Amino acid sequence: MGTQNDRRDFLRHGAAATAGLFAAGTALGQTPENGAPSDEYQGQGGVYPRMHPGVGGPVGSPTDRGKLVPGLRKAGEPPVNVIAPDLKTLSGKIVNGAREFHLQATPTRREVLPGIWMDAYGFNGQFPGPVLEMYQGERIRIIFRNDLPEPTTLHSHGLELPISMDGIPAVTQDLIQPGKTFVYEYDVHQEGSFFLHPHVAMQEAIGMVVPFIVHPKVTFEPAVDRDFVLMTQQFSMLPNAHIPNTISMDWNFLTINGRCGPYTTPLVCKLGERVRIRFLNFSTLHQHPMHLHGHTFWVTGTEGGRIPETAWIPGNTVIVGVAQSRDVEFVANNPGDWVLHCHMFHHMMNHMVSQVGPIIRQEKNDPGFEVPGYPQIMQGMSDMKMEGKQAGKMQMEKANDYSMPMTMEDMKKLTDRRETHGMREGWYKGVKGLFTVMRVLPPDLYDKLMTTDDPIPPNSSTPLNPHHA
Known about the structure:
Immunoglobulin-like; 4 helices; 5-stranded mixed beta sheet
């Protein structure tokens, strides 16, 4: 992971910060220029509102639910760089006619929630990731070194490549021994959302996967302004343990890009932009119905690549099966901080474990126990808030005895991230497990958040009192 300064530099300069990674003529496209978009898009089939919710033209028309409404970028520009919150992205460099990447399989330690660390395996010191991105039609070269204490391989999931490059132990190659290097090299004629992983099952279950994004030669229309990558995983880590149990058929930690909500960094876009989200599911056991609030999207791609426009499906929930990817696109025309989460109920919780002893009781004679099934509230974030920057203190509002304490340091890890500034006070108490937030901000607020260091008061993007919105 990058440092806080790295993140701030990326926020300030956007994709332009990575443009130097590409040789002339091969650079990926940049993020849109600042400026307020027009209130409405006028196209074939009718008008579609950019700045507020609306259905657009008749069913089946280009503006139907924003289906073919373009983003704010100029036509003909290259694809934008992907944004993978909490992960590094690599674009490699052209060496002897191939885009070359260096990957090392390494033991990895990751803070999945403030103060909760997981020891796992990964690549280049992190899991998942780093994200690799390249262009359709290029040749890829992956110089892969095994720095694990055990043999492994690297499989390019979903890629149509020579059999000798498929990375299957014994079937296509010998295992790569500890300390040894193997070079994978092949031409990439496909485009889409893929991933790389070992073909050793328990190594996959302990975190080892690399999102691999192949941009089309020519930007798909309608072009998007933001292109997010979200990879889901699940782990079983018992109380007081810090190593996942890879033979377990159960789970209690669910991550997006290596973190559990509310430690997942929000996705941030500007009101009126066209957004793509690439969901990649590398969970051990479960599908994830990923649900976005406040917007209707179109499913535009799978691990097989782009879907023809005539087969796109509208919705707000898309099921992403194990080892699958799904791309969705929408016009972000509904301002606010919208949650994005798996809708399997047990996937919206953190570090679930079986209760030891009698069920927790708030008080000895709690009248709630007269109701069958009580209590169903889960232990979670406690009601903490800063009394003030000058005081430097934190106050505990004891809403219930099921809440869990957090230190000042842990709280700062959630609230000091620039991407969270301006959200509703206490937002983190409603974000758990396979959960993140999609922030759709008016242009002025977006620019202030992402390009300046100016303070942004809480409740700037979502009001504290809903009736005063």
